[in-house]
Every structure is written in structure tokens, then in C-alpha cells.
Amino acid sequence: PRIRADSFQLSEGRLLEESVEGRKTDVLHLVGVTAEQPFWSAENGLKIDNINLAGLNLRLIRDPSGDLLFLRDLKALRGELLPTGDEGRPEQETADPEPVATKDFALKIGRIATTAHSNIRFEDQSLKHPYVLDMLIENLQVGALDSTHPDQAASYALQGALDRYAFLQVEGKVKPFGKNFFLEQSGVIKNYPLSQLAPYSMQYLGIVPTQGTLNVDTTMSIRDNTLDLQKTWLFRKLRIKTLDDDLAAEFESQLPLPLASALALLRDKHDNIELKMPITGPLNDLEFDITNLFVAPLSKAIVAATSSYLVFTLGPYGAAAYVGLKIGEKLMETRMPPVIFARGETGLDAVQKDYLKRIADLLDNRPGLDMELCAMVLPDEHLPGQDNKTEDKVPAAELTTEEINILLDLGRARTMAVKDFLVREYAIDPGRLVICLPELDREPDAKPRVDLKF
Q1: Which residue of 280, 373, 377, 443 pairs with 415 in a disulfide if CB–CB is 3.0 to 4.6 A?
Q2: pTM given for the model
Q3: What is the distance between the alpha carbons of residues 154 and 438, in angstroms, rounded to a whole number?
Q4: Is the four-CA dihedral 294, 299, 300, 304 of positive or negative sign?
Q5: Distance from C-alpha of 195 to C-alpha of 212, rounded to nearest angstrom
């Protein structure tokens, strides 16, 4: 037999009713579906020229245990959830049925499109404070789908909004019928309110964003069972607040820099922070938890962004800024290359001034960044009656109180020389330059210097 029609129409289609907080709701609600020129035959399967969706509403709910409700119901429909006996085995075990030779079902659809606004709502009730995301689909287009040509990719494009105001655009191509799943996709999100993510950040990181928006650019490919996801996150005017000190401390311990230092170093003069956060690897080996999806990529992004920025800004001095930095190691402080002084001297030469000019550029481009100036003096520097050029070292233990005070004054003079130069020549706010107490450096290879710390 063969069946042909000009069109097939479905109105008010509903699938998988759920009970949420005592209220009945549907996982899928189709306001209207029209299939144009449907044709079915036993030898060729089903062919449809166009499918038009006049409104689609999908509700995805993650219950308090962390399961997606519709996946549970689909498994039940497919008979995968069976009653078990006392030992956890099916109550009745039956032999596998003999395989029956059947012809693969053929499906061809020329195009799928929405003709009215649609909506997808995601609710995560597994959090202490539930998270809700509404995706408004203004336009959805899916190209030709053909199961008889499994290596033929179908294109798709979606445009809409997240929580009404954040722009969303996704486009890509997929091989849904291929032997090995294949997908290539790019997506853009603009102006998503960061405060909407508070339920996740509060539960897993102990902090909440109180202000700011997020832009995301992504490219994703899945081929040969391997995921390659490249994300660029742009945070605008991000402000955070700590609500759980223990969780926040645990989160910060997994970062290569203290969070406050990282944010200050990454935030540019327009109050933006840009991070590239890739996730790659075999799908069956990826662990989809907060550490693997956010914390680890964030650590790598912080290192990549800060080191590349410092090398670019500091030029020939930048290579020393992050020597030996490794992902996952905790740095108690962020050190820059120091300002080296000649023994007994407090004046700045041309090399020192060139370096401090680059430091001024860094501070100008990172207005949220403060810097500590910490002088380190050698025990045998500039002592009364001591030849500064001699190689004979004066042990620190033999110094008198008066000699130590002379050395510490030398260190103070050096930090003031650095601070005054940055304030006078480049109008750096003096409140951003914090002077530490000078110290004696007793290491044999130490050099007279002013350390710069964030």
C-alpha cells in the first residue's frame, strides 16, 4: 500500500504529562504541526516535503535527585525500567527473542521550520535554590534529513532569546543517521544577566554574581566520539559576593591565582574580562561535573590570559612574569619582575624607567589592580666605612641596630623612588601603590631590588 496526502495537520498535541509541585504540566506541547505532501510506501518509507511548527513548548525538569524527568519517562515507555525482585534482577527472565530480518525504516524530510514563537523552559530543582531558564525561539530552520544517506549532513539555524533579553543564535550541521555521530556548531549569547547564574555559583562555588552580563561565543564539534568545545566568555562589569566562606576557599584553592588577584589582573579599563575556556576529549571519558566543566577550564583560561597579557604588555620583561607557572599550583602572590638597583644606589636609570613605563601601562589598563612595592636590601650595602664594590660579605648577624636602620632607610628610599616616578610621570593614583616594610635578603645570590606584587 501507498498513502499520499496534500497535508497532515495536528493541533494541541501533548506528550508526557508531569506532576510538578502538585501541578500537572506537559513535557511537550505542540500548538500546531503541519506536514506538507506526506507520502508513505512500504518500499520507500516516509517522505515529507516540509514540516511547519506553529508553536512548540518544551519543559525540561531536573528533579531533586538530579534526573531529567522526561528521560525517565522515555525509558519507561521503552520498557527499560522493569520491576525487580529481591536480588535486583527482573522477576521473570525470558530468553532473547530470535532476530527478525527487517528492512531499515527510511525517513526523508525536506525542511523543518517554526512559523510562530516557541519556548523551551529548563528547571533545575536539584539545587538549594532552583534555577529556571526560558529560551524563546523566534526562528528555527532545519535542512534536509535523509536516513537513506546517513553521511549527508543536515544544516540547522536557531535564533531567539534567553530569559527574554539575552540574544541567542545557533547554527550548525549534524549527521543524525550516521554510523558515528557528527556535529559542527557555532553559537552566540549576548547580554545574559550573570545574576541568573547565582543558584549554581552559590551551591558549587560559594559566591554569587551581584552585577554584570555575560557574552559567550562557542564552536563545538563532535566526531569520532570526541568533543572539541571552544568557548570565549566575556564578562561585563562583573561583581561578586561571597556567601559561603568554606566553599569559596575550596574553589579558590583550585585556581592558579587568588580570585581577587585574577579578576583585577584580567579586568580591562572598560571593566570587561575575557576568557577562553576549551573542553576537549573523548565523550566516554569526559566527566560532566562542576570541576571539569568550569573550574579546570577556568584555571587554564586564567593562566593563558594573564601570561599572554603580561608578555604583551611588559615586552622583553614579560617572560619572567610567569616562569614556572603550572596549572593547578596555588600561587600565594603574583610577582612581577623586580626593579633591580645598583648596590647602594636609589636613583633610576634608563632601563628601570623603561620597565616602569610598561608597569604604568599595565596599571592604566587594569584600573582595579593595586600594586605592592617591597624593597629587599643586601646586608653589606651602603654601610659606613664599607666599600660597596668589595666582594666581602658582611654577615647579617654582625650588623648593629644602627647599621640595620641605615639599610632599611635605603630600601624605603628605593620604594619611594619607584612610587614617585609612577605618580609624577604617569599620573598613577598613589593610593594604588602600597609600600611594604623593607627587608634584608640574606640569600647569597640576591640582588638589591624592589619587588612588585599584586
Answers
A1: 373
A2: 0.79
A3: 67
A4: positive
A5: 7
Do 232 and 202 contact (CB within 8 A), yes or no? no
Question: What CA–CA distance (Å, rounded) separates 238 from 234?
Answer: 10
DSSP SS3 for 294: helix
Eight-class DSSP state of 80: -
Q: What is the pLDDT of residues 403-414, one digit of tens each?
A: 889 999 999 999
Q: Which residue has the cell 573523548?
A: 282
Which three three-digit cell numbers place residue 434?
Answer: 602600597
Please give the helix or strand (H or E) that residue 69 lies within, else none. helix 69-77
Secondary structure class of 413 (helix, strand, coil): helix
pLDDT single digits (tens) 300-311: 888 778 777 777
Amino acid, single-letter form, for residue 112: I
Tell me the backbone φ, ψ of residue 362, rounded to 5 degrees. Answer: -60, -45
> In which element (H, E) is residue 299 found?
helix 296-314
Other CB atoms within 10 A of residue 301 CB: 21
What does DSSP assign to residue 342?
-
Rounded CA-CA distance 17/76 in Å is 13
